[in-house]
Amino acid sequence: MPLAEYKKYRVDSVHNIDSDTMTLGKYEPTIRADGTKDFSIPGPGAYTVKAGDTTYFSLGTEWDKITDTYGLDVAGQNMFDYFNKPALDDAINAGKEIRFSHNPEAYGECALKWEWDYLQEKHGYFALEKKGDFWYATK
Fold first, then answer.
1. CA-CA distance, 119 to 125, in Å (whole number)?
2. CA–CA distance, 68 with 65 (Å, rounded to integer)
3. Phi, psi of 93 (to 5 degrees)
4. pTM for the complete prediction?
5. pLDDT tens, 11-39?
6. How many other CB atoms are there within 10 angstroms of residue 79's CB atom?
7. Do the strands 127-131 and 97-100 form a parallel or antiparallel pair, or are they unpaired?
8. Could you tell me if 14 and 87 are in contact, meaning their C-beta atoms sit under 8 angstroms apart?
9. What is the C-alpha to C-alpha distance for residues 21 and 96, in angstroms, rounded to an integer?
10. pLDDT on residue 72
């Protein structure tokens, strides 16, 4: 991926940058009347909806486009390394509070778990505190 394109995606993928809180979580698609999932529209339980005015990271439909165009792994580990980790590092360096809309310990191997693992390994977080509908990461 050309550097200029990467930088554009990095900027475009972080929403509500001025918030002092970053929300992480699971993406849940809209469920159509016929039961099909529409991944182009977030459902009411999606972290992008639950985030409200807080900072959140999302490439939306660009995720699949980037993965396909550049032959990245389908599981998403490459994308996680290239995009999620820097977004997390930026949030921590900016002093943002980190919260999850879904319990990251309740899911198997996925980006949500990888985010929590990364925060623990790289940034010294060690516990989650449930407050209302969110799990707050604590150091």
1. 6
2. 5
3. -65, -25
4. 0.88
5. 999 999 999 999 999 988 989 999 999 88
6. 18
7. unpaired
8. yes
9. 5
10. 83
Alpha-carbon span 27 to 25, nearest angstrom: 7
Dihedral (CA of 117, 80, 123, 101) sign? negative
CA–CA separation, 26 and 105 (whole Å): 12
Q: Which amino acid is at 38?
A: D
Q: Are 97 and 134 in contact (CB under 8 A)?
A: no
Distance in Å from the first CA to the final CA of the chain: 35
Interval 38-91: pLDDT, tens: 888 898 889 999 999 999 999 888 888 888 898 887 777 888 899 899 999 999
Please check whether residue 56 is in contact with residue 24, taking contact to mean a CB–CB distance below 8 angstroms.
Answer: yes
The full set of domain ranges for the chain reads 3-138
Which residue's entry shows tokens 């475009």? 12
3-class DSSP state for residue 71? coil
